[in-house]
Every structure is written in C-alpha cells, then in structure tokens.
Design goal:
The chain is an alpha+beta fold and 153 residues long. It contains four helices and seven strands, in the order αβααββββββα. The strands form two sheets. Strands 1-2-3-4 form a four-stranded antiparallel β-sheet, covered by helices on one side. Helix 2 packs antiparallel against helix 3. The two termini are 17 Å apart.
C-alpha cells in the first residue's frame, strides 16, 4: 500500500433508509411477540399455555428481528487501492483495476460496479431511496475510481 493510500481515509457508505426500516421493523417484531407472549396465558380458548410457550414466542420474535436486521448489513468501503462491497450475504473486495465503472442505471434500486465481460456487482449500500446521499456516494466512488485509474496508467 502506498503512503498516499495509507494517509487517505477510506470512504464508507451505508444505506440510511434501509437501516432505519430494518431497525424499526426489528423493534416492532420484538415488542409484538413479547406482548403476545405475555397475553398468551390469559386466553379463554380452552388451550393451556405454559411459561415455556411464552419463552418460545419471545424467541421467535427475536429470530424474526434478527432476520429483519440482515437488511441493515450492506456497506461499501473504498480506498485508493480498491472497493469492498458487503451486500446482504456476501463480502467481496475488488481492485480498482478490475472495475470498469461505477454506474447507477435508471430504474435500478441500487448502484453497481461494472466489471469486464459484461458482468456487474450490485452495490446495495448505495440505494436510490436515499436520494441525495446516493448521488454523493456515487460521485465519491467515481472519483476514487478515476484517481486510481489515473495512477495506474
């Protein structure tokens, strides 16, 4: 790694709205399942619920909340050497020399990295619903890409 690359802080981008929706959804799921678990013993349906059923209901709520929080995971970390893309389930690092361009085609929900052979990688951390933040992030990524390619040539 060059001295200039070490001195420059990496650009880190995370989706704002997706993280907010995932967090609110997770909290609502936990609250709803805790309330249901507390009210479970007070039903007059003829079915007897035990404490273990209540604990299981809270456990289901926690599992569903953890599933909702997976959608808050996307992140991009870029520096002079390359870009690391963390989507919902995968983390991959690409050197800038492999990236042809950073694009955000009309109508797509998130940005993407165009790679050789007509391949591309979705960058779920830069989402269209974040509007101006997405524009700023794409411009910053394009600038890092441009500088890295200028140094390589």
């Amino acid at each position: 790694m060059t001295m200039a690359a070490q001195a420059e802080k990496p650009l880190v981008v995370r989706p704002r709205r997706a993280r907010m929706v995932a967090t609110v959804s997770a909290v609502v799921l936990v609250v709803v399942f805790v309330v249901v678990a507390l009210l479970l013993k007070n039903t007059s349906t003829g079915v007897y619920f035990r404490t273990s059923d209540q604990v299981a209901m809270v456990g289901v709520g926690l599992l569903l909340a953890a599933g909702a929080m997976i959608f808050a995971r996307p992140m991009v970390r870029a520096d002079a050497e390359g870009i690391e893309v963390r989507n919902v389930f995968t983390v991959t690092r690409y050197p800038w020399t492999l990236v042809r361009q950073v694009s955000f085609p009309d109508g797509t929900p998130w940005a993407r990295l165009d790679l050789p052979d007509d391949e591309y990688v979705a960058v779920m951390a830069v989402q269209a619903v974040d509007r101006e933040r997405a524009v700023v992030a794409v411009r910053a990524l394009r600038e890092l890409h441009r500088r890295a390619n200028a140094v390589a040539e």
